[in-house]
TrEMBL record:
A single MF term (Gene Ontology): DNA binding
InterPro entries per the UniProt record, alphabetical: F-box-like_dom_sf, F-box_dom, Hemimethylated_DNA-bd_dom, Hemimethylated_DNA-bd_sf, SirB1_N
Every F-box domain range: 10-56
Top-level taxon in the UniProt lineage: Eukaryota
SUPFAM superfamilies: F-box domain, YccV-like
PANTHER family, sorted: HEMIMETHYLATED DNA-BINDING DOMAIN-CONTAINING PROTEIN, SI:DKEY-261L7.2
Name under which the protein is recorded: F-box only protein 21
């Protein structure tokens, strides 16, 4: 008897027309899209459509490296890009970054090498790292170190971008003013809104708003356009500063803060930079001036037109017609006579007037910004010494770091002057790198030694880099607990307050005796302590009765309380005698500042045990 034919039951969903299946697929996440595509030839064809994978690409990743030319791809027909292949390429980057990141968190060995490998992907890992930093649960087993190192990687991605922009400027390549000045912002952002793309989009939006408000804008003369731009920016409070007492506030040096954060205050230089960037998008050739003490915008008429729009005969070598704006103070034109009078009052020689009234090279504006940041940081530190309130705004150490880098990378045509300035800045940058940004060893290696080729600093730098690389590659020498360390009363991770100075800290290392330099011992008057440098805090004897007991010294990470008057070395590592440590009581939670910094050494804070959970067990295995 013949076997009856087998009938395959078609899932009801495939009775739907293609249009409805496409609508369903448009709501599926990537993994379900792939699974649905495997169900049949018909579903595979639907899920293979470029539009499907273009949606997945733009929904999953906000940030893309420039070589992808994403804007051009989005403007082109979907079929011209292999969107599914692009999706898998980006997914592979995320997967590799995730593996390297998890390895980085588990051991100090090769930590900075792995961090460098991840950061090398640039903006392609920004979405992943922002998720690690901002979306890791407070209950995660390694929440502090995961957030800390994700932020460190984001910071290095941004700093790498900034240094590339400055290096292009130094090499006399085309870099827009807002990119050069926005590079300072990249040092203080660490992933917050305000990177170069955000600044670019906001300036585009402002220019479009001006054009939309005045349909006849494009038909106006250059003079009228220049005035309209200033009028709009001042009406929106995007330029200027109503609080003159805060003139040199650190936040006023950064374009992104002026554009995105209330109040929209800035220094004249940043106000002019915003004005020039918007004006340029509207067809106005505007650049910052060389004017001393207060930057103005210099607007230049086209070669064949006057500022008022009248045609004129082009003459080779003729000086262009100029006008000046001071958007920081007013939306009216500033007369050249007024500017010349001020120059005379300042004692500027008349032979220099045209130089001061003319447009400044972008590199000079960049260096001027660096000098302004230096002034603002110094003022901020002085304020912190004399006030009981913690200042809000950009991180002082990150801002100082940006200034140091700009002073090294950017230079004038005077090689001797550049070398002198770089020699002055180099020790400060190396100290800052070692203290706050040890992960930047690759940036130091890439940019700095070549600046000192043939100079004595070159050999010193190469030795420093080699030493730092070896320290990262080698396993940490363990300091186990045994009879010889039984006088070490406190553990790695103990949260404490300094008995004398009142700052908050956490223990990140210990020694059986003070191993600091003699200069530090004398400066801190260690020998004046009740037990000196070689006696125990507690009068406890161990080992041979004839051997004098010894004191433990601890390396600590500290932050000062908000009401503390002197905080010059906030967020620093310190060397503290045992007798100066007072462990915090149960229930006393570490400050947000300390929790953020502690991720470099610890996995999490354990409120039940009243201790930070160590992530440096390879160095202190029994703590």
């Amino acid at each position: 008897m013949a076997t009856p034919p087998a009938y395959t039951t078609v899932p009801p969903i495939f009775s739907l027309p293609d249009e409805l299946l496409q609508l369903i697929v448009s709501h599926l996440p990537p993994h379900e899209t792939v699974a649905f595509g495997k169900a049949s030839k018909r579903s595979n064809k639907i899920t293979y459509e470029p539009l499907v994978w273009r949606r997945h690409c733009i929904e999953r990743w906000k940030y893309w490296e420039s070589h992808y030319e994403l804007s051009e791809r989005l403007d082109a027909p979907p079929s011209q890009t292999k969107w599914q292949q692009l999706y898998y390429e980006r997914s592979k980057v995320d997967h590799e970054a995730s593996q390297a990141f998890n390895e980085l968190l588990t051991t100090q060995q090769f930590r900075y090498e792995r961090l460098e490998t991840i950061a090398r992907h640039g903006y392609d890992i920004k979405d992943f790292m922002m998720a690690q930093r901002d979306q890791t649960s407070d209950d995660a087993e390694d929440v502090l170190c995961r957030r800390y190192f994700a932020d460190a990687i984001l910071g290095q991605v941004h700093r790498t971008t900034a240094l590339e922009k400055w290096q292009r400027l130094q090499d006399r390549q085309m870099v827009r003013l807002e990119e050069v000045l926005g590079s300072y912002d990249l040092f203080v952002l660490s992933g917050k809104k305000g990177d170069l793309n955000d600044i670019d989009r906001e300036l585009d939006r402002l220019a479009q708003r001006i054009r939309d408000r005045d349909p006849e804008f494009d038909d106006l003369s250059i003079r009228m356009k220049a005035l309209r731009v200033a009028r709009y920016l001042r009406s929106e409070n995007l330029v200027g500063n109503t609080n003159q007492e805060d003139y040199h506030a650190l936040r006023n040096n950064f374009l992104s803060l002026a554009l995105f954060e209330e109040p929209h205050t800035s220094l004249p230089l940043q106000s002019v930079a915003i004005y020039c960037a918007v004006a340029r998008r509207l067809g106005v050739n505007s650049r910052p001036s060389n004017y001393p003490q207060h930057v103005h915008a210099v607007i230049e008429a086209p070669q064949n037109l006057t500022l008022d729009g009248k045609h004129k005969l082009f003459v080779q070598g003729a000086e262009p017609e100029l006008m000046h704006m001071d958007p920081w103070r007013t939306d009216e034109e500033v007369s050249q006579d007024q500017l010349r009078l001020r120059l005379l009052q300042m004692g500027a020689p008349s032979t220099q007037h045209m130089h001061h009234l003319g447009a400044s090279p972008t590199i000079e504006i960049a260096l001027r910004t660096g000098r302004n940041i230096m002034t603002s940081v110094q003022e901020a530190r002085e304020r912190q010494r004399g006030t009981s309130s913690r200042s809000r705004g950009p991180d002082i150490e990150a801002a100082w770091y940006s200034m140091l880098w700009s002073m090294l990378v950017l230079g004038s045509s005077n090689l001797a002057s550049d070398l002198h300035r770089r020699r002055q800045c180099l020790p400060y940058l190396i100290e800052h790198f070692q203290k706050h940004y040890p992960e930047d060893i690759n940036l130091v290696e890439k940019h700095i030694p070549s600046m000192f080729e043939g100079e004595r600093e070159h050999t010193i730098l190469l030795h420093l880099i080699t030493t730092a690389r070896k320290a990262d590659q080698n396993k940490k020498a363990p300091s186990p607990r045994d009879k010889s360390t039984e006088n070490v009363a406190y553990k790695i991770g103990h949260h404490f307050r300094h008995k004398r100075y009142g700052y908050e800290g956490v223990i990140i290392g210990w020694n059986m005796r003070c191993t600091a330099e003699q200069r530090w011992i004398e400066q801190m008057r260690v020998d004046d302590l009740p037990r000196g440098r070689d006696q125990p805090f507690y009068n406890v004897v161990y080992g041979s009765p004839k051997s004098p007991p010894r004191k433990a010294y601890y390396t600590v990470l500290c932050v000062y309380p908000a009401d503390y008057i002197i905080r010059a070395d906030d967020k620093s590592t310190r060397y503290v005698a045992e007798e100066n440590i007072e462990v915090c009581k149960p229930g006393e939670t570490p400050s947000e500042d300390l929790l953020k910094l502690a991720g470099r050494y610890f996995k999490r804070w354990d409120p039940q045990q009243n201790i930070f959970i160590s992530n440096i067990k390879d160095e202190f295995p029994d703590d």
